[in-house]
Amino acid sequence: ASAGSWWRQAVVYQIYPRSFADANADGLGDLRGILSHVDYLAELGIDAVWLSPFYPSALADGGYDVADYRDVDPRLGTLDDFDDLVTALHTRGLRIVVDIVPNHTSDLHPWFREALAGGRGSGARDRYIFREGTGPDGSEPPTDWQSFFGGSAWERVEDGQWYLHNFAVEQPDLNWSHPQVRADFLATLRFWSDRGVDGFRIDVAHMLTKDLGDPLPTWAELQARPIDGSHPMIDRDDVHDVYAEWRSVFDSYDPPRTAVAEAWVHPSRVPLYARPESLGQSFNFDLLLAEFDAGQFRTVVTDNLELATRSGSSSTWVLSNHDVVRHPTRYGLPARTSTAQTPALEWLRSGGIEPALDRDRGLRRARAASLLVLALPGSTYLYQGEELGLHEVAEIPDEVRQDPAYVRTKGAQIGRDGCRVPLPWSAHAPAFGFGAGGAHLPQPDWYAACAVDVESADPGSTLSMYRRALALRHQLQTKEQLTWIETGRPDVLHFERANGWHVLTTFGTDPYPFPGSALLVSSSPFAGDVVPGETTVWFRRGALPSSQ
Ligand code: TEU
């Protein structure tokens, strides 16, 4: 791919820095920990690394509460460490993407402290969204709006005013009508671009601009408003004015810096974010909600390839990230008619007991799904640990849970910590090789079997499968299209990429006669004449071209 379009079919590996590797033995992952594993990343065969936030933060939301957008959290390292990491990645041909969190700052950000110190009527409050309360003495919140993490979306400050926070209390929403807010994020994009960053992942990209109205609508009124570009808070058309300014920064670099939107919007509005004049690419989260089912996968693939074509972008694929239950666990729980997340959340709430998890089956299906996704046109975002086949960790005592998010159903508090447990690098080292200072979330005993050193030595491991698939993907990478081949079986998908690279997945338990002549890689042990159930195979038909 040419330098400017490297992202179109890239495999991007998401690192959650606090849980990847800890070099300074304080129990928290850090930049030098990542640096110590760049060869691992290069050998895995990915194209780019995306770092979740590593900026100074009180960790009220795992770093998505940023106190300074242009520095490194001292517990994670220094700007010099960051520069070393960029160099180490670039030397190995890997790109680096960093996370930008523009909807809200941390309440420790200098702007918010200034806003608090300035008091009522202070201009410093205009960078955020302050309002008077209601009720006789203003002691009731301005509205009954709910935050995503539960509870009121408004918090009262000492002098009696209230500020808006769509996420945690420690994450005040910014006012994107303010020129200084706009200018400062342009400076942040330039700061990291100047340090050699290749692209940006934009957090909550669909919520920056707001036009809340006066009087403010009620929660019910807000919910009833159509999300058609004119909603007071969500997916407004004018957010793309912001991204047009960002685009001119991205395009002022050679090669142009890239961006991917984390935008939870209706599929019909995804292309607005993915347009080249906006952010250029947008996450497709459909697979997070799909069950392990041929029909659902085919619909997701077809729809998203079409959406990407319509926007002039390439499609993206995500099976896991730091916000959701890991996919081997989702696939190992009983299917439901609603979404695949439903039983996973029940399972988490019960501490990993109900409903019963079939770990082997979940892993078998996860490997099949991953191998299918790695063969699709477009770019794939992997989440650290999925290459090891890690399950969600359910056995985390409530008192050590860190995540402010919770599922409100039945009032039980369940965070996202179970996919953020520090990685196992070595079966026998302290904290499974994460670091000599222990791990900031407890690692389960079953981690030993999934450690990098154990899986590296086993040709049948999930890690070995990812390595083989990623190496092949580089050789076989081809046009951004696929052709479905009808199998006559509703539980079996088969497609061909443009150069004779075939991919077949059996979603059910029944085997399927192997239709190829040369197997390239299989997600399950493969006997030769039949593809087992719940398995993906890559193969060629006829003789392999000599160029391979
Ligand atoms: O997530 C945005 C978001 O909408 C989340 O609430 C998401 O729906 C939820 O986590 C799914 O379980 C981003 C980040 O990815 C997340 O980690 C942050 O907590 C959030 O923004 C606030 O910055």
Automatic annotation (TrEMBL):
One Pfam family it belongs to: Alpha-amylase
Swiss-Prot/TrEMBL keywords: Glycoprotein
GO molecular function: alpha-amylase activity
GO biological process: oligosaccharide catabolic process
Superkingdom to which the source organism belongs: Bacteria
Residue ranges occupied by any Glycosyl hydrolase family 13 catalytic domain in the UniProt entry: 14-420
Similarity comment: Belongs to the glycosyl hydrolase 13 family.
Name of protein: Putative alpha glucosidase
Top-level taxonomy: Bacteria, Bacillati, Actinomycetota, Actinomycetes, Micrococcales
